Amino acid sequence: MGVSSFGYILPKTKQEALMVLNETGEKGRIVAGSTNILPDIRARKITGCILVDISGLRELKGIEAAGETVTVGSLTTISELLQSEIIARDAKVLWQACRRFADPLVRNRATIGGNIANASPAADGVVPLLALEATVNVESQAAGKREIPLTEFFTGPGKSVLQPGELITSVSFAKTTAMKGAFIKFGLRKAMAISLASIGIVLGFSGDTITQARIALGALAPTPLRARETENYLSGKQISDEVMARASELITTEVKPISDVRASQAYRWHLTGVLFRRAIEAALA
C-alpha cells in the first residue's frame, strides 16, 4: 500500500482537528513534522489510516512564560526551542537536548508534541521534559481537556495513555532558572544518532548542599524514566567522590536496558554510570 492510498485531511482550526479526530477514531493518525510516521508508512508498518495534518494550526505553536510556568505549544519545532531565550534561560536541560537533537533539517521539522506522542524510549525531547517534571496537556471533542504528568504518560515502547481522538495541545513545566541542569547522550553517530543512552538532570542547591535532584534517563528501559532512588539519595548531600561513587552504582540498579544491534545490555549498564557522572560535571561547570 503506497502513501497515495491513505486518506488525508487538512483541518484549518484546532476545533476542526478535534472534530475530525473524533470522527475518524482509531483510524485517524496525526501528522505535522512527519519525521517519524512517514518512514513507517514507506516501510508499510502503518496501513489503512487517515492522515490528519495539523501542521498549519498556529494556535498550537509558540513558547510562553507566565509567572513561574513555561508553556510550549505542541507544534513548536525543536529549532524554535533552540532559538528561544525563554528555554535557554528557564529550561537549560531542554535547550541542551535540542542542541543534540538530530541535524538542522530534522530540527526544523520535528515538533515537541510529536516527540512526546511517538513514545520512543530513546526520545531526546522527552528526557529533559521528565527532568523538568512536565505536564502534557491534551484535548478531545468527546472528553474535553485533561492534564497528564509526563511521568504517567508512557506505558511501553511506542505506547502511551493518549486515547483515540485526543490531541496533544501543549506541554508545560515550572521554570528552573535558579537551578543547574545538563543533558548528555551517547550514540554511534554524532548528528543523526539514536541514543544508546541519555540523561537529563536538574539540581537545586542551598550553598553546596543538594536540595532537589531530578534525574531522567532515556533508552535504558521500555519507557523513559526517572531515577527516583538516586534522586532521593542525592537530596541533602554535598557532591563528593564518595557520594558520586555510591550514586553511580545506585543509578545502574534503576534501569532495565536491552541488547540490540546497536549495543549490548552490559554496555548500556556501563553507560548509565558514565553518563550520570558526565551530567553532574556538566551541570556544575
Structure description:
One of its GO terms (molecular function) is anaerobic carbon-monoxide dehydrogenase activity. Its EC number is 1.2.7.4. The protein is an alpha+beta fold and 285 residues long. The chain folds into three domains: 3-53, Uridine Diphospho-n-acetylenolpyruvylglucosamine Reductase, domain 2; 58-174, Uridine Diphospho-n-acetylenolpyruvylglucosamine Reductase, domain 3; 180-284, Enolase-like, domain 1. Helices cover 33% and strands 26% of the residues. The strands form four sheets. Strands 4-5-10-6-7 form a five-stranded antiparallel sheet. α10 (241-252) runs antiparallel to α11 (265-284). It is globular.
Task: List its traits.
285 residues, alpha+beta, Uridine Diphospho-n-acetylenolpyruvylglucosamine Reductase, domain 2, Uridine Diphospho-n-acetylenolpyruvylglucosamine Reductase, domain 3, Enolase-like, domain 1, 3 domains, five-stranded antiparallel beta sheet, four-stranded antiparallel beta sheet, 11 helices, globular, FAD-bd_PCMH_sub1, FAD, Carbon monoxide dehydrogenase medium chain, FAD binding
